[in-house]
Amino acid sequence: MNHFQTILPRVRMLLAGHLPSQARALLDSMLERELLSREYHCALLRESDGEALARKISLTLLEKGDPGLALLRWAWGTWQAPLAERDPDDKDRAGSGQCAAMELGPLEGGYLELLNSNADPLQLYHLYDQMDPAREEIELCSEPDMDTINCEQFSRLLCDMEGDEETREAYANIAELDQYVFQDSQLEGLSKGIFIEHIGLEEMIGETVETLEEKKSQKRCEVPQASQVLPSSSPAIHSLPKSPERPGSTSPFAPSAADLPGMPEPALTSRADVTEEQMSPTRSPAAHEVSGQLPKWPERVEKFCSALRDMYQAEPAGPEGILVEVELVRARLERSSSKSQERELATPDWAERQPARGGLAEVLLAGGDHRRPRETQVIAVLGKAGQGKSRWAREASRAWARGQLPQYDFVFYLPCHCLDRGGDTYRLQDLLSSLGPRPLPVDDEVFSYVWRRPDRVLLILDASEGLEGQDGLLHSACGPVCTEPHSVRGLLAGLFQRKLLRGCTLLLTARPRGRLAQSLSKADALFEVAGFSAEQAKTYLTRYLERAGATERQERALELLQGQPFLLSHCHSPTLCRAVGQLSEALLELGGETELPSTLTGLYVGLLGPATRDSPPGALAALARLAWELGRRRRGTLLESQLPSAEARAWAVAKGLVQPAPGAAAVGLAFSSFLLQCFLGAVWLALSSDIKDKELPQYLALTPRKKRPYDNWLEGAPRFLAGLVFQPHADCLGALAGPAAATLKDRKQKVLTRYLKRLQPGTLRAGQLLELLHCTRETLDAGLWQHVVQGLPARLSFVGTRLTPPHTYVLGSALEAAGRDFSLDLCSTGIDPPGLGSLVGLSCVTHFRAALSDMVGLWESLQQRGEAKLLRAVEEKFTIEPFKAKSVKDVEDLGNLVQIQRTRSSSEDTAGELPAVRDLKKLEFALGPVSGPQAFPKLVRILEAFSSLQHLDLDSLSENKIGDEGVEQLSATFPRLKALETLNLSQNNITDVGACKLAEALPSLAASLLRLSLYNNCICDMGAESLAHVLPDMGSLRVLDVQYNKFTAAGAQQLAASLRKCPHVETLAMWTPTIPFGVHEHLQQLDSRISLK
Asked: At residue 109, does pLDDT exceed 80?
């Protein structure tokens, strides 16, 4: 132990007075000298506790017997060399403090001896801050600390240790030696002293603390007063204050815990005394005065942050500067079907939506409750193309520039459609430097601050679906060490896998469908962009014309939009709302009587038709072909060299068809919108002679093939294709390509007509049926439209299918055109209240189902607006038959419906029961063992309102377990359930107590009950006897199921004896494992109505 006490202080001194990279050099040297195994070397590199690292190195040297401590002398001499070879320009800054730092070598007394030396801690503080960023990047990109190592890595490490005999033996020796060291009497005394300090006996050391404070205050330079406060979290060294502006450090020359990403969370001290102004790179003058003479941010970092803020704060030009805030709602992903692994956005009912009313702040804090310390936070904002995700993401960066996000020091906005770069390699520093509206260079000093403070960094990856063209993006291996260049795919994979820049906040925007969206199920928070309401669309159109200088035409433009409700419904998408504004402006400039087109195809033909009149020969066809080919590869960017000529490029840019991609290469272009790319792709399908006739129907994506289905990434192309092929040639495709394409168009029209007429709408799924209606409406072919709507089934279910405003409008038009009655199921469609009211108010809709919460909201809205006629019609048509309660909210909504009925009955204006309550015949309760016992009393209180209830099913695969108490509550309602025919109480944990209560109340149902099931409960002989006693009184009972209970042969014989008195009973199922099989057979032979199945 004397040797150990000799080595340990020197190792402590080596590790305490020098940089982490030098400690790594010492471990590398020990590995080269074969003093460490490779596995133990990796483990020590991840060790975050300095004291533990010093002990482990000392134990290793002691075990290997390093004579004369030659390795330590080599390390000390090597580490002092860089200090002596510093840049001469640094002498003025360091002064005598540098000399003091170089004289630390002979000290052997640890921290206390260093304190009494002539070393100036402030100069060592500056020495650390001036370390080489490139070298710092290497050491800070090391493997994650041991506190956050995952189970897979730990298991792999254990397997490696078990497989290597030499490593296993070395670990065993070190473990024995470590145990021996901690049993030493001197260390026991030290631990005891520390324990005494923790229980509050500070007076034992108070005098020593004051003496050491006086000595240290004479040695230090002038520092802020706050740094003189004794840290309460340092049990070993009470006389050392925290380093200036470095919270968490107990050594005046040690880097703060915030600067070391590898430090575990317990090493981080509280920052309650540090304000957001002190943490921000751009502070007010008052904050600079408070911080003293030591600025936290170097000048380069200050300039970079200022330039970054100026760049984001710049007001976008043109329509991009129009801001109408879209609503964000909480979202979640679920499997599209039980047999599919693909995930899609869940479709909550309208009343169940959880809007992010706190705006951007709520979004960024959404995953904080579940976030692990120093773990990357991933937040995804999903929405269909054109819903305003990119505009929202840019506004987030502007919010930071305006000082509204003080929790972040750096925000980088990265448009992902510019990351489509194959073959090149980059560092993360290069990637951050080359992207954004106006790329800013990120030098080494700035990047070192970014890298050392990942928790203060927000990365916004906009339009992440643009990365889907990079194969293997989500499965690429990119660890935290990033000194070598990687492909863009590798860098982004490291960010997605929470390895690279670990601890940052990653904000993604993407479409809900696609390969990337499938990996977002483990994101910390998911949000969905809700799109524009009708009022927001009108507001946007007004602001668009105001910015265009056409304020006098605002009212006329709104009249044009109101005249085309189909386009108004599509203004749910901000991109389409902008297209409507552009066309409205152009039409109003022409003057005269005009109107907007009635289809999306006509809208885009109206926008592109004038642009093609002066286009270079073949430019439109070439651009359309590029749009289609890039869409097949899931890309939206192109190179200038891909266009046929410079004239074609100049024309496309001038007409707004493409625009320079921000942050991309100098020759990079991007389509101005995704819907425009879809339209151009459809133009290529309509014009191309390379598309075979038999292949054309697959691009409508209505009946996908089982083998090699068409990847409908350009999801808007099918509707545009139908419109271009069927609408009059002169007004549609001819306006774009001239009369030469008429023959080709006629041939393709015949092919699609045969295909659409062969389709049977009743066999299509809900989503495919809606797409068929959209495509058929785009054709403007009355005969084809009638053929499709006449094939609609009388009962239409859209459960689980999102009904957006365009879907609602097209569906309503089809139902009216059919001229017959329909029944709709609109549960779990997310339909908005105006859309719900418009559909259920149609005279052709005789019955409909919808979410109870949505209906309650609709009734209240109709009552407030005074629409009594529509309210009565909705009440008569609404049905909840059959109703299945799957959650506590379902039971509460059912209670609200009953309350509305009771309110109506007590009102003088209206009387009578609600048809939905009056006509309910089947009610299922399937909440499971947790929520079931809690919600069942609420259900019992409203059961008497359902006067027509015939089937009450309380069985659930997961068992409701209402128990004896629930049976007693239910039995009290039997006198008012006069129509009840089927009562299923299976798997509810009912014992003899509940069976007896049930038997007492069953005579109330003697005239109506046909089937009673008590399958798989805990009924014993006493309960069986009670049921046997009441059985003859149940004159209407036909089936009794008491299988899988716990009564014995005695209970079975009593039931069999009672059965002989009940000629009306057809079946008694009572097989149970507690009865011998021979008894079963004997009873069955006596009465064949006894079933053993």
From this structure: no
The angle subtended at Cα 10 by Cα 6 and Cα 13, nearest 5°, is 150
**Residues 168 and 161 sit within 8 Å (Cβ to Cβ):** yes
Nearest C-alpha neighbor of 1019 from the set 1052, 1041, 991, 1043: 991
What's the mean pLDDT in 121-142? 42
* Measured distance between the N- and C-terminal CA atoms of the chain, rounded to whole angstroms: 78
List, for residues 822-848, the tens digit of each pLDDT value: 999 999 999 999 999 999 999 999 999
Q: b/e string for 276-307 if b means 16 or more Cβ within 10 A?
A: eeebbbbbeeeeeeebeebebbbeebbebbee
Where does 595-706 have alpha helices with state H? 600-612, 619-632, 646-654, 674-687
* pLDDT at position 463: 82
Distance separating alpha carbons of residues 487 and 492, to the nearest angstrom? 9
- Where do the DSSP E strands lie in 787-877? 795-797, 822-825, 845-849
Per-residue buried b or exposed e for 917-932, using 16+ beta carbons within 10 Å of the residue's own CB? beebeebbbbbbeebb
**pLDDT for residue 717:** 93
Residue 159's pLDDT is what? Answer: 52
Question: How many C-beta neighbours within 10 Å does residue 959 have?
Answer: 16
Angle (CA) 805-807-810 rounded to 5° is: 110
- How big is the chain by its Cα radius of gyration, in Å? 38
Contact by Cβ (8 Å): 722, 748: no
Q: Nearest CA to 741 among 724, 753, 756, 755?
A: 724
Packing angle, helices 444-452 and 299-313, rounded to 10: 80
Check if the beta carbon of residue 797 is closer than 8 Å to that of residue 805. no
User: Which two structure tokens, joined as six digits, stand for 424?
Assistant: 């090149």
Instruction: Work out the burial of residue 270: count CB atoms within 10 Å of its CB; fewer than 13 is exposed, 13-18 middle, 19 or more buried.
Output: exposed
- Name residues whose C-beta falls within 8 Å of residue 878's C-beta, 6 or more positions apart in sequence: 840, 848, 849, 850, 855, 914, 915, 916
Q: Does 249 score more than 50 pLDDT?
A: no
Instruction: For residue 378, report the phi and psi dihedrals to the nearest 5 degrees.
Output: -110, 120
Question: Mean pLDDT, to the nearest integer, of 920-930?
Answer: 93
**In 244-254, which positions are buried (b, 16+ CB within 10 angstroms) versus exposed (e)?**
bbbbbbbbbbb
Asked whether 613 and 620 are in contact (CB, 8 A), the reply is no
Find residue 71's DSSP bridge partners. Answer: none
Nearest to 457 by CA among 526, 524, 341, 364: 364
| C-beta of residue 296 within 8 angstroms of C-beta of residue 316 | no
Mean pLDDT of 632-640: 85
Kindly write down the DSSP assignment for every residue of 856-920, as one continuous string. Answer: HHHHHHHHHHT-HHHHHHHHHHB---SEEE-SHHHHHHHHHHHHHHHHHHH-SS--S--HHHHT-
Q: Is the dihedral of CA 638, 641, 644, 648 positive or negative?
A: positive
Count of CB atoms situated within 10 Å of the CB of 765: 11
8 A C-beta contact, residue 939 and residue 902: no
Handedness of CA 37, 39, 42, 48 (dihedral sign): negative
- Token pair belonging to 36: 């460490």
* Percent of the chain clearing pLDDT 90 (strictly above): 34
Banded model confidence at residue 23, pLDDT cuts 50, 70, 90 = confident
Yes or no: say if 548 and 586 are a contact pair by the CB < 8 Å rule: no
Residue 56 has pLDDT above 50, yes or no: yes
Amino acid at 77: G
pLDDT tens for 734-775 read 888 888 788 888 999 999 999 999 999 999 999 999 999 999
- Band of pLDDT at residue 439, cut at 50, 70 and 90: low
Note the pLDDT of residue 734.
85
Quote the tokens at residue 1025: 């006897």
Q: Any idea what DSSP says for residue 480?
A: S
